[in-house]
Amino acid sequence: MAVDAELNERLRAALDGIPCISEKPMMGATCFFHHGNMLGGADRSKTGERRFLFRVGPEGTAKALSRPGARPAERGARAMRGFVFVDPESCDARALEGWIDLAMDYVWALPAKAQPLKI
């Protein structure tokens, strides 16, 4: 995986104004957190595929996969339960807000892990 600066900036701008958001590099990507819980991120796969990653929770996976451009998230041969990859070409500004809302619905209910740094 590799960092995708443009997708990171799109996600960063869409998250602007939401309190308690932080970010850090993880797994060769940039991940964004709410109260220390991963919300999502963006990267380029080893094959160069650009993609967003959103944490929707196990209960939200079926709903998420019904949306355009979504597919199950996998790292190698392992499924990332409760996460989906989203094709950025299927994710205009309005759709990106919808993905963030869906991820926040899940992450908001989780207990805070750490005091985040404001980005």
From TrEMBL:
It comes from the Bacteria. Residues 15-105 form the TfoX N-terminal domain. InterPro entries: TfoX_N. This is TfoX N-terminal domain-containing protein. It comes from Thalassobaculum litoreum DSM 18839.
